[in-house]
Amino acid sequence: NIPSEERGDFLAELAGLADGLICMSQAVIGEVVSVLNKVKPMRDSDLPLGYFLPATSITPQVGGVQSKEVDNLAASLLGEKSILFICGAEVSSCRLAVEVLNTLWSRNVDVNLIVIDRGGLIGREMDGLIVNHRELGRRLHWLTELSEEMTGGIYQLSDICLCTSLGGEQGLAISDVAGCGLPIVVPDTPLSRELIGSRGVFVSGGEESDFAMKLEQLLENKESIVQPDERVVDAVAWDKSSRAIRDILLGGNWQGSWSPVE
Question: pTM value?
Answer without folding.
Answer: 0.77
